[in-house]
Design a protein that fits this description.
Blueprint (H helix, E strand, L loop, with lengths): L5 H12 L4 E10 L6 E6 L5 E2 L2 E3 L6 H13 L2 E11 L5 E3 L5 E15 L9 E7 L9 H16 L1
Parallel strand pairs: 1-7
Antiparallel strand pairs: 1-4, 2-3, 2-8, 5-7, 6-7
Length: 157
């Protein structure tokens, strides 16, 4: 069985361990426009919004995951980014509809230089939109909540 890609690797792990919990790692990016608004993504079939990002490929550096995922999901090219936080712990636990369980360890980057026009891929992402702090929609997941907490704390300073 080939384990060259992350989906293949995860399938291989699941053959060995079944639905038991595993640790997965990934990256997400906080992208702000010139007006200071935050780019969020609404996934296909979802009502809540998320921070663009995803799971790392096997052996992939977090910075490379960030660049790849943002290009795939938003069509944006990341030129520079700073590590802002690592989101981990019990709040990242997820059980999928098929019973598979995992904890997600996500590196959250503040994207400091980017180019392109935000365009959803139509496969994972249905919509992309910039939001001002006072207009934020309901967010899904601990990464979005952590980002908003840190962003709001900065705005109060």
């Amino acid at each position: 069985m080939s384990t060259d890609s992350t989906p293949d690797y995860i399938r291989y792990l699941r053959v060995l361990i079944g639905p038991k919990p595993v640790n997965l790692v990934g990256a997400a990016g906080a992208v702000f426009n010139m007006a200071g608004e935050l780019l969020l993504q609404r996934k296909v079939g979802a009502e809540r919004w998320t921070v663009p990002g995803g799971v790392s490929e096997l052996g992939e550096a977090f910075e490379d995951t960030l660049r790849r995922e943002l290009l795939e999901e938003t069509s944006l090219v990341v030129h520079a980014a700073d590590l802002w936080a690592v989101v981990s712990g019990e709040q990242t636990f997820k059980r999928l509809h098929n019973g598979h369980e995992f904890y997600m360890y996500t590196t959250l980057f503040r994207v400091t230089a980017w180019s392109g026009t935000p365009t959803p891929d139509g496969l994972e992402g249905a919509e992309l939109q910039f939001f001002a702090p006072q207009e934020l929609p309901p967010l899904a997941g601990p990464v979005g909540r952590r980002l908003v907490d840190m962003w709001m704390a900065e705005l109060l300073v």
